[in-house]
């Protein structure tokens, strides 16, 4: 069996959450209305577009899902070209490969968005499994289904796997999979810290220094 290391994307590979928040504060009140936006804004972090639409639907959203997705896709190119790759991410990817990990990526973001981010990585070919949970017939985070599928495809087991996450739902999904769960604090909003991760790391560079000491 292989050792597996699986990445989340937003807030982990790329510091996009805060950039999304800036744009969402502009366009979501326009398409949802100020009242509805204020009701759901605290539930956006770590959610897919489908998940956000589903939440908004419970409050009486007035545009259809296709229009909602189109608005988000229109901003995605701006967000993922403006957001910085997390410092040291390519170094971590290369180091994990030298440690004989098989690499995967499981993200709530749409596949189009994942493709934009991966195009910015010089070592994107290191990933052997990539999954967008948006629109897939897989339960979204906090369900562990996406991570369990990645572990299976990478020919590994949960006790041989590590997952790097940042959001509450992501950490919940990773923990529920049975994998060793690492929470990256580097790109988190101030005061936001998901509970119950097996390890917390302040930065990718710190994780690079410590990764060899983690036993799975």
Characteristic key phrases:
about 45% helix; globular; six-stranded parallel β-sheet; about 220 residues; single chain; alpha/beta
Overview of this structure, please?
With 216 residues, the protein is an alpha/beta fold. Helices cover 44% and strands 14% of the residues. The protein has 9 helices and 6 strands. It has helices at residues 17-32, 34-40, 49-57, 65-82, 89-98, 111-118, 145-153, 168-177, 204-210, and strands at 3-7, 101-107, 127-132, 161-165, 180-184, 199-201. A 6-stranded parallel beta sheet has the order 3-2-1-4-5-6, sandwiched between helices. β2, α6 (111-118) and β3 form a beta-alpha-beta unit. It starts with a strand and ends in a 6-residue tail after the last helix.
What is this entry, summarized?
The protein has 216 residues and is an alpha/beta fold. It has helices at residues 17-32, 34-40, 49-57, 65-82, 89-98, 111-118, 145-153, 168-177, 204-210; strands at 3-7, 101-107, 127-132, 161-165, 180-184, 199-201.
Percentage of β-strand residues: 5-15%
Total helical elements: 9
Category from helices, strands and their pairing:
alpha/beta
Query: What value does the Rg take, in angstroms?
Result: 17 Å
Mean pLDDT comes to 96
Q: What does the overall shape look like? A: globular
What profile does the largest beta sheet have?
6 strands, parallel
Oligomer: single chain
Order of helices and strands: EHHHHHEHEHEHEEH
Strand arrangement within the widest β-sheet reads 3-2-1-4-5-6
